[in-house]
Write a sequence for this structure.
């Protein structure tokens, strides 16, 4: 006779083969800046915003790029706008 399995909160009682679980689809995003004939474009996925900020900081420190802190601020503002739009989906319509 089989013993009943102990209940563990958060775990499904149905076993699933990990190879058949599809990953959560994340939306792709793009921020861009055109400056003096150069186009700076950062493509990223939702949830990877911290990597974008780190990359912007690294770009500022590169001497071979015409990219400064103001440019990084402009692009990080675009990043914030994307996050703001995403968060608006979580706010109830009648919230003040």
């Amino acid at each position: 006779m089989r013993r009943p399995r102990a209940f563990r909160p958060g775990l499904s009682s149905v076993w699933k083969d990990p190879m058949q679980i599809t990953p959560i689809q994340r939306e792709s995003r793009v921020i861009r800046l055109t400056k003096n004939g150069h186009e700076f474009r950062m493509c990223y996925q939702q949830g990877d915003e911290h990597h974008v900020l780190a990359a912007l900081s690294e770009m500022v420190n590169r001497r071979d790029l015409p990219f400064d802190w103001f440019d990084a601020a402009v692009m990080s503002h675009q990043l914030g706008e994307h996050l703001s739009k995403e968060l608006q989906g979580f706010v109830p319509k009648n919230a003040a």
Q: What stands out?
A: The beta strands are 28-35, 38-45. Residues 3-16 have pLDDT under 50 and may be disordered. The radius of gyration is 22 Å.
